[in-house]
Predict the 3D structure of the following.
Amino acid sequence: MTGVAAERARLYQTVRSAHLERARVLAPATILYRATRYDFDRALARDLDLVPAGPVRAAWLLARSQVRQLEVNEPLMLASLRRTALALAVLRLRHRFGGPRTQCVSYAIENANPFARPAHGRARLTRLQDRLLARFVWASLDRVAFGTEAAQHTYASVFGTAAGPAQRTHIPALPAACSCADDGSPSAPQIVFLGALAARKGFPQLLDAWPYLKVWRPDARLVILGSGPLEGRARALADADAAVELHIDPSRAGIHAHLRRTSVLVLPSQPAPGWREQVGLPICEGLAHGSTIVTSGETGLAGWLEAHGHAVLRASAGPQEWATAVDGALRADRSKFAVLQDLPPIDGRLAADDWLFGDAP
């Protein structure tokens, strides 16, 4: 496609496989995007209405369209802020000159205040501009759905009583049970790390914990699924240890197959400058396949996970603490059925979409 043909559109900074999978079960919409993520699956993109567009082109295409419903990236996503603000300003101008009014909505999961970090020199001016643009985007939204309680608290701390969306709700960013076939109970305890092989995802914490687990649980297997800057360390471990299996950039079908056989999924997310784990797609994928989760308190789902039998540690926990948590999850031997019973019947992101676009303007 070269334009916006639908009356509903989604303006994203980046697109990944999760967006493509959702697009196939949601109402038809044009997806305007600037870039693709590392896990973008071109096979999933077939037959979808995807339009690559920078900030100016996206605003131009929206101005010339008949779009009546638009989803934008959340106001505290600073990387897309100027793009979002430009699109909303153009649509507001279009309406003022007699064009159709567009219902603007957003899904919010940010759980770190991006304005809390110190700024000096020219960065202070950029910070001020970002604050003003974020307030403009916040005030331009008709509806916002929060995916976590942590996001609700973050937005309240940033915007306070400032004008914002008239309608707001909280729909937990929890998956529904995956519909793929069950392979039955794994023959041996299987631990999975899924996602970017990077420090911020806690991959070094898992590598440091593995020697303890090898002693305590010699029957356990570690499966590493992903890619990233620490691939070298992952390859070295897999080459040296027959109990470690590595798959770089696995297919979606391959990921599902491994998760069906997984007892515990580990994601020891770590804080990083300008970044905090919002939800953690690997956490959602693990839950959807009945895996017990071992993660840090950085995820916005930390409270829910603790309340439902999963392990949540301090991000600063040492290797032996991480190993103890994983070992405890393995020994608990919680059934996949029990994990799946805690999940909603409808994926939280899909339920949020239904609410966001529930009524046409």
Remarks:
- DSSP finds 14 helices and 13 strands in the chain.
- Residues 122-140 form the longest helix (19 residues).
- The radius of gyration is 21 Å.
- The domain at 8-174+346-356 is CATH 3.40.50.2000 (Rossmann fold).
